[in-house]
């Protein structure tokens, strides 16, 4: 809910009376009260324009943002699943590579031993 901004002199006559009591002539006091009211009106007008120019979120804006958040969460879940699959594939490839290297090393050791003990 937007609150309206409204500034005013409570009673211009009381303000005028106080200015005269402070030593200002009646003409100067009247001009002062009039100019003060003009300034206050300008401030009120500016404040109302500012309130109307603000970007306010509507319920549909909030729902659109919530939908976007849900889409991003789904994208993140999809990326996580793809990443888990890639990690699993890399792990399997690494195990195959390690098994191949172990077999090659075992074959090399067997060949060295076989040559050393004249098994071949």
Largest sheet: none
Structural class: mainly alpha
Distance between the termini: 95 Å
**Tally the helices: what do you get?**
3
Overall 3D form: rod-shaped
Query: Helical percent range?
Result: over 70%
Strand content: under 5%
What is the total tally of β strands? 0
Q: How would you spell out the order of helices and strands?
A: HHH
Mean pLDDT across the residues is 84
Rg, please?
43 Å
Low-confidence stretches: none
Describe this structure in words.
This protein has helices spanning 12-21, 26-53, 59-116. With 120 residues, it is an all-alpha fold. The chain has a domain at 1-56. α1 (12-21) crosses α2.
Layout of SSEs?
Layout: H1 12-21, H2 26-53, H3 59-116
Helix pairs in contact: 1-2
Give a quick rundown of the structure.
With 120 residues, this protein is mostly helical. The chain has three helices and no strands.
Question: What are the salient characteristics of this protein?
Answer:
mainly alpha; rod-shaped; 120 residues; 80% helix
């Amino acid at each position: 809910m937007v609150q309206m901004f409204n500034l005013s002199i409570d009673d211009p006559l009381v303000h005028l009376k106080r200015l005269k009591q402070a030593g200002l002539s009646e003409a100067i006091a009247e001009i002062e009260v009039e100019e003060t009211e003009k300034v206050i009106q300008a401030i009120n007008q500016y404040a109302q324009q500012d309130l109307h120019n603000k970007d306010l979120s509507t319920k549909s804006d909030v729902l659109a943002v919530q939908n976007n958040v849900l889409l991003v969460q789904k994208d993140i879940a999809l990326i996580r699943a793809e990443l888990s699959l890639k990690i699993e594939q890399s792990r399997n490839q690494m195990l195959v590579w390690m098994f191949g290297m172990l077999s090659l090393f075992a074959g090399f050791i067997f060949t060295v031993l076989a040559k050393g003990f004249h098994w071949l």
